Amino acid sequence: MTVDEIRHLIDTEPDFVNLKRCNNSLEQALETYPDGAPDKVIAQALMLTPEEVDELYESVIVKLRVLMKVEV
Question: CA-CA distance, 51 to 1, in Å (whole number)?
């Protein structure tokens, strides 16, 4: 499978992650890491850099704060 094919599956298949040890299944990854996966694993699963994972976290937090009307 090419990188482009894997990227396409990550973007379009709800249960697909790039983690062979979890049979490329998000559901299985959640069972394997019930308390949360390390950033390194998340980056691999989504084919992102660790920096991109940090940026994604921050953007989610900002969106949640806006939606919840929380000021910091």
Answer: 25
Query: Considering only CA atoms, which of 2, 6, 28, 27 is closest in space to residue 18?
Result: 6
For residue range 10-62, list pLDDT tens digits in order. Answer: 999 999 999 999 999 999 999 999 999 999 999 999 999 999 999 999 999 99
Sign of CA dihedral 24, 25, 26, 29: negative
**Could you tell me if 26 and 12 are in contact, meaning their C-beta atoms sit under 8 angstroms apart?**
no
Domain that includes residue 18, residue range: 3-68
Tell me how many domains the chain contains: 1
70/36 Cα distance (integer angstroms): 24
What six digits make up the tokens of 5? 């094919």
